[in-house]
Amino acid sequence: MKLMLKYLKKYRLISILAPLFKMAEALLELFVPVVVKNIIDVGIAGGDTAYIVKCAALLALLALVGLSFSVTAQYFSARAAVGFSADLRADLFAHVAGFSYAKIDRMGTSALLTRLTSDTDLAQNGVNLTLRLLLRSPFVVFGAVLMSFTVDAKSAAVSAVAVPVLGLVIAGVMAATMPLYKRVQEKLDGVLGHVRENLSGVRVIRAFSKERAQTEAFAEKNDALFSVSFFAGKISSLLNPVTYILINLATVLLIYTGALRVNGGALSQGAVVALYNYMAQILVELIKLVNLVVTVSRALAGAKRIEAVLAERTDMTYPDPGAQPDFTAPAVEFAGVTLCYGDNADASLSDVSFSVPGGSLGVIGATGAGKSSLIDLIPRFYDATAGEVRLFGHNVKDYAAETLQSLVAVVPQKAVLFSGTLRENLRWGNENASDDELLAALRMAQAYDFVSAKGEGLDLMIEQGGRNLSGGQKQRLTVARALVKRAPILILDDSYSALDAATEKAMREALKAAGARLTVTVSQRTGSVAGCDEILVLEDGVLTARGDHETLLGASPAYAFIAKCEEGGEGVA
């Protein structure tokens, strides 16, 4: 919890003032039964109306001052809790953003989303209630017990016994529910992951009429969440009735013994009322404490999950200032590179070696051949398990993060745009790019015509995920975004898949004039890489052949087979 508590340091003062104001309010509340006792024993018994009015005015004053203390405490606790969660969420997001692809793959996107949303909200609620009630409720409970002894020691013994018994019950329930609430959040990860997967692939689900199967799968995960939540809720729900039973039994015993002592003349009627009021205060505060225990149990479970993410350290480190590129050296070199995505996983790339001085490079192979794995090593999305990846004469691990990012522009396989204007999306590649540069990039990416037709130009609003654009339009805009960056290495990962033949040809010709030192084109089609200076052929993670189009047609059976399939010859089936 030390890791979490550091986020309250910024709000240290109000985190101290909030419970202090709550305790001040509680202190005033403890005097109320004493005033009521005096009204009964002195004012009413003696028929002193003026005394009753004075006591009533005192009660009103206590209520007014207590209300002001309470509102102040509520404000401070809410401010501290909201600020705590905002800072925590910001740091957690920044921390996750620094993770490598491998770590995000291992931890899971849905699990990280749950920690950024649900777990953080639970922690916020836990901090809020803790500042308001963690000190106040025990203070009132023990204060009420002590004040009861000042009224009548023998009768107060009842509450003195009841409170420790209730404390044991609360501690037992808390110990039982904390592990359960951790399981609840884990099951929530599964539900969130299933929902995210279904919403992303809704078209595929409907195309294959799998709505019922996916609904049943969701129901199964949801039922698992329900079962754990229900079981945890059943245990937590025992707190209220058990608390009511024990306190009410203690109240009955108190009234019974108090009545006997009143009849015997050892206790006044006002004293019995005061003792009853103190017992009522204990009841109310214990109920608050019970609810606090449930909330804090869930908050602690969420906090531990957040701490687990914050404790994770990125497996990629960058030197500062790092190496500077030598543009006289080859643009990209692979030296005995092997890549495994897990400790026990099969190699996605095996002993790959090649060197490319510049120009255009094609990478081709069947699905699962390792094409994306190979190009992901160039901008260091993943680190090679063995061997070296060098850019412009230096290992990619020797570059500072900013330097490496400036050397490579990537158009990912999945076209992703973000909500905002087209101008804002294109400037992801270069924040200082002028409108003329943006329009030039749109022309090279064959996107200028459809953007102009929409009539809004660079102010065109892009909806979340680019859902107001077609697949081909999104793909062209992602190419334009990469071109705006003007990096010496441009990587196109299957970036022609949604384009027609004419548009693809025009874009390939335009990219030749883009000015990149090296353009890497990844594709499953020979037509997309035929014009490259050199082509790499991958089969099951192994580099089996390299050369230009004509050379590979005779030297690589795999390449020749792909070309033959595209021409409609043998092997299409």
State which percent range the strand residues make up: 5-15%
Overall shape: it is elongated
Number of strands: 12
And the CATH topology of the largest domain?
A: ABC transporter transmembrane region fold
Q: Biggest sheet: strands, sense, closure? A: 6 strands, mixed
As residue ranges, the low-confidence spans are: 569-573
Estimate the helix proportion, in percent: 55-70%
| Radius of gyration, whole Å | 35 Å
What is the CATH class of the largest domain? Answer: Mainly Alpha
Distance between the termini: 61 Å
List the total number of helices: 21
Round the mean pLDDT to the nearest integer and report it: 85
